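Collaborator request, handled under Task 6.
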Amino acid sequence: MGKNKKSMDGNTAAAHIAYALSEVCSIYPITPSSPMAESIDEWVFQDRRNIFDKEVRVVEMHGVD
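Structure tokens returned to the collaborator:
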């Protein structure tokens, strides 16, 4: 087969796909999907580009008080 396989949780898998296919990622902290937001934040900090060789921008959403 020769393909590399990696075991990961659903949030991490979703983060990989969302990051690869997006130019803007909206994140809302303190939710069950927080690990997804943390991964995306880390990749933006590392200057990782998406599959279109574009920078990905993160927009952090905030609740209304």
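The cover message to the collaborator said: "DSSP finds two helices and two strands in the chain. The chain has one domain: 10-55. Please let us know whether this matches your experimental observations."
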